[in-house]
Amino acid sequence: MSDHVLVINAGSSSLKYSLVDALTGEVAASGLAERIGESQGRQVHRGTGGETETTRKIPTHEDALRGAIEAFESHGPSLADTAIAAVGHRVVHGGSRFSAPAPVDDDLIAEVTDLVPLAPLHNPANLEGIRVARRLFPDLPQVAVFDTAFHQSLPPHAYTYAVPSAWSEEHGIRRYGFHGTSHSFVSQEAARLLGRDPAEVNVIVLHLGNGCSASAVRAGRSVETSMGLTPLEGLVMGTRSGDVDPAIPAYLMRELDMSMDDIDRALNSASGLKGLTGENDFREVLRLRASGDARAGLAFDVYCHRIRKYVGAYYAVLETLDAVVFTAGVGEHSAEVRAASLNGLQRLGIIIDDDRNTAQSTQARRISPDDSEVAVLVIPTNEEWQIARETLSVVRR
Ligand code: AMP
């Protein structure tokens, strides 16, 4: 029986896919279609025949997936020969309803549709990916893997906002957390790297990519996380502000006559690194900072200071700490961010070895001395593999 899972991540104007061996993590093929619905789209497929790229109009997500199926047939590997076990879909918001991956059926689609107000940009796109895949792969089981599910283990005192209780009871206003597949994968890998059972270790995971989030994971279960009702809360991100005083929107409405939509857009798309420097790509921020740009220098300091605050807070939440783990684009690649975020925390048992930190590697590794009380680790995240594993666990249950 094949252990291959076709992992689909549908965005509002994009569709990414990978064909992953759920047992080994090996990627047989991957690709993406982007600028769906625009006058000119782009499709990329990486398979047995190497990488191919085509530009053409891709009117809908269905056209995108059809194009991917054709690319599999013409550039390999043939889907018919691979015998896919299931299709796994990334779904951003599972609300309080989903604490685990779930088989796709009409009820699940209705429930994910009910959650659209909580994720108005993401859930409709994820649903479109599900509908299209069900049409084009009617004989394959389909599974939804939720970004929020791993954080459903947060205790009430961590997920409750101190607001009128009717807001949460009647409208679901509470902290959900996101990037769950990444936090789950990386915390398990951390235990493996330490040679210990996940049920025995407490870790702080710092997922620093375009979106950034921190989590505190106790004995394999998430007990705190920095993103909230939406992915806006918490760390400084590429274009999102992270934590701000919640009175700022009211101030802007009153004093600058800004609309709620404009403020929402500014906090999500024109803040974070982009708001501070004009650039949302961290490599550009580093380049500007190295050239002496004062704004980029400040942005770097704000970014690392926020991480440091969360590390301290989550250490207090966990009480004992075995590892701090850096992952995702910035976390995996920027030795400067890792050093600036954690330097000076020796009294907490957190020490970075400079040579290990700056050594070039793409492998999971320890960057603290072997005998430090808290291990500092760099672990490449692999959300596609985690989605494939969780998908297979549902279909083989
Ligand atoms: P991700 O969302 O995980 O793909 O991460 C994207 C972010 O990682 C972008 O801000 C990139 O600029 C950043 N990134 C990727 N490679 C590097 C690098 N070598 N050094 C610093 N940042 C990087």
TrEMBL record:
Mg(2+). Can also accept Mn(2+). Keywords: ATP-binding, Cytoplasm, Kinase, Magnesium, Metal-binding, Nucleotide-binding, Transferase. Belongs to the acetokinase family. Mg(2+) binds at N9, E383. Homodimer. It is an enzyme of class 2 (transferase). ATP binds at K16, H207, L208, G209, N210, G211, D281, F282, R283, G329, V330, G331, E332, H333. Substrate binds at R90. Its cofactor is Mg(2+); Mn(2+). Pfam families: Acetate_kinase (PF00871). The lineage of its organism: Bacteria, Bacillati, Actinomycetota, Actinomycetes, Propionibacteriales. The gene is ackA. It comes from the Bacteria. This is Acetate kinase. GO terms for biological process: acetate metabolic process; acetyl-CoA biosynthetic process. The keyword DNA damage does not apply. The record marks H179, R240 as: Transition state stabilizer. Its EC number is 2.7.2.1. It is found in: Cytoplasm. Pathway: Metabolic intermediate biosynthesis; acetyl-CoA biosynthesis; acetyl-CoA from acetate: step 1/2. Residues 37-57 are annotated as: Disordered. PANTHER family: ACETATE KINASE (PTHR21060), ACETATE KINASE-RELATED (PTHR21060:SF15). GO terms for cellular component: cytoplasm.
